[in-house]
Design brief:
Blueprint: H1 2-16, H2 23-31, E1 52-55, E2 58-60, H3 63-73, E3 80-84, H4 90-96, E4 101-106, H5 109-122, E5 127-131, E6 144-149, H6 158-162, E7 164-174, E8 181-188, E9 194-202
Parallel strand pairs: 3-4, 3-6, 4-5, 6-7
Antiparallel strand pairs: 1-2, 7-8, 8-9
Helix pairs in contact: 1-3
Length: 211
């Protein structure tokens, strides 16, 4: 799996503005047991570099995309991160290896409860989860050093930008459901000014809620 990630990085390096991923990110990808987050019927594909269904019309993302989103967020050891879309809990676990505290929101109760149970069984103690609409973020715990959204929004939710710390980053796929989407990096500078750039074309399930 790690070799596949490294190959994808080399292939996309001009777009993602990286020749290699941070060794801390790769170490987290190596450490987290991905097979714990996939359907038992798909254990033989757990470390395949591609997405897999996890039920409820959702997927566990391709390992390369998980690693890339983590890399682009530029998270640090003492950081506090918001994840919108817990899903299987795999991206949550990767983040938990790298930062002090992860807050993760899942709109589908079945998935959120299953992910929470899995993360607790593995032994993560720096993750807090809730069931809810991720468009609103997690205001009482804001601001965050980084926000990662693991489903595609048609537009960037403004409250997620508001909940970024100065110097923070929002990583989010943007585009219509089941069509062309872009992985967007939103940066907030020390004065609160916002800029953004596109890292890669991607395909994510749609971000629901927000009505």
């Amino acid at each position: 799996m790690l070799q596949d990630i490294e190959m994808q990085v080399r292939y996309t390096r001009a777009m993602i503005r990286r020749n290699a991923l941070n060794p801390r990110v790769m170490a987290a990808m190596s450490k987290v047991p991905r097979h714990k987050f996939v359907d038992p019927a798909m254990l033989d594909r757990a470390y395949y570099d591609g997405p897999l269904p996890i039920g409820c019309g959702q997927t566990i993302s391709q390992p390369f995309i998980v690693a890339l989103m983590t890399e682009l967020a530029e998270v640090e050891e003492g950081g506090k991160v918001l994840e919108v879309g817990t899903g299987s809990g795999y991206q949550t676990a990767i983040l938990a290896e790298l930062v002090q505290q992860v807050y993760s929101i899942e709109i589908i109760p079945e998935l959120g409860e299953q992910a929470c149970k899995c993360l607790q069984q593995i032994g993560y103690e720096n993750i807090e989860t809730r069931i809810g609409d991720g468009h609103a973020g997690w205001e009482e715990e804001a601001p965050f050093d980084a926000v990662l959204v693991t489903a595609a929004a048609e537009a960037i939710p403004p409250r997620l930008i508001e909940q970024l710390k100065p110097g923070g980053r929002l990583i989010i796929p943007v585009g219509p459901a089941y069509s062309h989407q872009d992985l967007i990096v939103v940066e907030k500078d020390g004065q609160g000014n916002i800029s953004q750039w596109t890292a890669l074309g991607v395909a994510f399930v749609p971000l629901t809620g927000g009505h």
